Amino acid sequence: MRIVVALGGNALLRRSDPMTTAVQRRNIRTAAQALAPLAAEHSLVVVHGNGPQVGLLSLQAESYRDAEPYPLDVLDAGTQGMIGYLIQQELRQLLPADRSVVTVLTMITVDPDDPAFANPTKFVGPGYPQEAADALRTDKGWAFRQDGAAWRRVVPSPQPQQIIEIEPISWLLERGAVVVCAGGGGIPTLRSAAGGRLSGVEAVIDKDLAGELLSEDVGADLFVMATDVDGVYLDWGTPTQRRLGDVTPEDLTGRAFAAGSMGPKVEAAVRFVVKTGRRAAIGSLADIPGIVAGTAGTNVVARARATNPP
Predict the structure, then answer these.
(1) d(C-alpha 6, C-alpha 286), whole Å
(2) Which pTM does this prediction carry?
């Protein structure tokens, strides 16, 4: 079976974690321990988030006044290499020596007319008190939105259109490699009107939507979005909250989920199932074996296999 796993939530950094290499390595080591058994039995592709990391690198670049700051697409590329390197190292410790683990820097095209460019919504970087966020807004021209009790920078998050490196990714999978790609949603890229030249753009693509497109392109049998909760909940945070088990895309259509967290995951799951007829799942990294078996998490299927509709 071919499985695409999109890592999020506590797979890389918890909200309270300092953004140090040691902390990220520790969390990635835990993720690798969950993923290694999958790699031993299945064809595996790993996608990861990069919101905190790209935000941190952006702050570091802005603080260096003697040079022009790096644009977001270059920072996206940098985080792909940085996080991919850590995932490669930790997975290699757990897999046979002859099993290749490869990170592919991945460009993904977006539409220059995507309405997301006029409405930034994607959180990047750390949280700030309102006063600090206001100062950064004035000083750097950044957009901010409230995220819980803190304020975080937001950037455009256009829809992914085409994965430029899909051929080498597929080639590596056909030869048995574990592939880490489309990290942070891929490097957002515009194609010139003539159809040739590629150029980066200031944005961050949602990793779950990029993972869905990748899952389609590589013919995945299962698309898993691993996060820090055990599934999709209705009425989250209320006394009547209820976790969904097996549901169809129709069960989820028209329901509202948090735009900055569960919303894109549900959208990606529904899109994958509608387009392919195969299964998508959302759940905890710790429940990966059960998610693959179909006994844990929220499973979105073309036809419900159980009686747990919303």
Answers:
(1) 14
(2) 0.88
